Amino acid sequence: MTGDFKQLTIKQAHDLLVKKELSVRELAEHFLKEAKTKSGLNAYLEIFDDVRAQAEVAQKMIDGGTATLLTGIPFAIKDNILIKGKIASASSKMLENYVASYDAFVIKKLRDAGAVFLGRTNMDEFAMGGSTENSAFGVTKNPHDESRVPGGSSGGSAAALAGGTALGALGSDTGGSIRQPAAFCGVVGLKPTYGSVSRSGLMAMASSLDQIGPFAKTVEDAEIIFDAIKGYDSMDSTSEPADSHHERDNRVSSTKEKPKVIGVPVDFVRAKGVDPRVLENFEASLECMKKAGYEVREISLPSLAHGLSVYYILMPAEVSSNLARFDGVRYGYHADGANLVEDYARSRGEGFGREVRRRILLGTFVLSSGYYDAYYGRACAVREMLKRDLAQAFDGVDIIATPTTPTPAFKIGEKSSDPLQMYLADIFTVPVNIAGVPAISIPSGFAEEGGSKLPLGIQFIAPHFGEDALFAIGKDFERVRML
Amino acid sequence: MADMAIELKDVEHLAGLARIAVSDGEKELFRHDLEEILAYVSQVKEAAGWEQLTIDTAPRTFDGVQGERGELCNVMRADGEPHESGIFTEDLLVAAPACEGNRVLVKKILGDN
């Protein structure tokens, strides 16, 4: 049993564990040691103190013959997913010492599967950002180039995995917060179909857009994690019931033929601001897929270009509502004022960072009297049109492909003083959340810059509940791209 | 439509609605940011062919298929006792900044102003 875990996948680790060539304790100790060595990345906010106890529970499952694919596998968990008894701060001063009073549904599922939670990872505060620079506890560094951001908002989870300090990770994705850091850090990231993974125990950012999803080194590993965390939850009213026709269709489609036709919205992909190296890499990826037998077809989807403006109206509106609960009364940061309203204003003014307050103010504006119809009402209407146009596009193609991000990872500090520039980086990812469809980002190569090789990602988008198609095309892509 | 101009008093008004204290120094920062962001997102009003649409008149989609709607169902739990009274009290109170007995303490809501 060699000590080289750099390339180790969940699938391989599982095989070693059940063959008893490796113990859960050995695996956990390795990752604890790595996490300590790499602590300069600031990927983890906290390494949990009960990892060895968790390892023992997992080992018992293996010894007793009840192991699952995830038993004993060390996970990094984003700081906005509740683990009972552990601090969950959403990387905010507002919840710096808040201890979760219950497990998120996905945590319960992973715990039952025997997974080991190594620690909680850094993020943009309340999931607002694309670089993890908005964390109240310092930025996380990209393991490929420590002068650069890992992406966000799930930057800590992506960096923990890419830095070799976990075998799997969970993040959340509202406008690209799993896929974009996955692309920047050279790992696989999946945003599942809205409703397929329970949001119970995920601190809500924008309730109609949020989804929890996996980070993994391979598409197969991402599929293993997704299979473990998905499923109906009665505690999430937007959770898809098990007997809905979508589940039935999905089971049918998995026996249907694999995806064959890839649609590329060329006008959208070649928009202003997309780095030429990203385009070159994307074109090269498509050529590989053609050689693998896929048909690549140009499609026109003009409504995609409106995704960003729809997103930056709907998301702040929902944020302003969801974050109203943080008032310094039942939990969280409390600052005293002269009366109750001043208590609220000071607690929220001091507990929330600037980007959070910016988005709450923006959301308050678009929902306020006199502007509600022109902004929020309009954005809701355009959202419906975008969903319709995407559905029509999927009549003709099986998968839609775009680069995941318009650029590779940027330098720490490069965009942090210009919110709009930061928002424009979400252009390829947000339409997916608006429509509720699933999408996966897969490493597609590198851009050379200043002596570093910066990872790039390709995004595949499928119709609702089309994760099987994403995994099929993803595995083919991994095979032919041979990075 | 003309670009939305945001003034300092607008920021103050929004901060009041959102119950968020904003320092004088930050007011101008937020004023500028909001104006710039709103100018960008305002393009949603120009989405071609959709100028007359409102939330009430837009064609509704159900999972992307236009016109089809699933059956409406009530996802709320029954209006009864969801669990035994008091079993979560301790866990929840431990997070509150101020308590008295088994209650969360809060300043007077109905004020003199």
Task: Describe, in plain words, how this protein is organized in 3D.
The complex is a heterodimer of chains A (483) and B (113). Chain A is α/β, with parallel strands linked by helices. Helices cover 40% and strands 14% of the residues of chain A. Chain A is built from 17 helices and 11 strands. Chain B has a domain of 59 residues. In chain B, 30% of the residues lie in helices and 7% in strands. Chain B has 3 helices and 4 strands, in the order ααββαββ. Chain B is flat and about 55 Å long. About 7% of the residues of chain B have low confidence. The chains are: A alpha/beta (483), B mainly alpha (113).
Describe the protein's topology:
The complex is a heterodimer of chains A (483) and B (113).
Chain A: H1 10-18, H2 24-37, E1 44-47, H3 51-63, E2 74-78, H4 105-112, E3 116-121, H5 155-162, E4 168-173, H6 179-185, E5 188-191, E6 211-216, H7 219-229, H8 245-255, E7 261-265, H9 266-269, H10 276-291, E8 295-299, H11 307-322, H12 340-351, H13 354-367, H14 373-396, E9 399-403, H15 419-424, H16 430-435, E10 439-449, E11 452-461, H17 467-481
Parallel strand pairs in A: 2-3, 2-4, 7-8, 7-9
Antiparallel strand pairs in A: 1-3, 4-6, 5-6, 5-10, 9-11, 10-11
Chain B: H1 8-18, H2 24-41, E1 61-62, E2 65-66, H3 89-93, E3 99-100, E4 103-104
Antiparallel strand pairs in B: 1-2, 3-4
Helix pairs in contact in B: 1-2
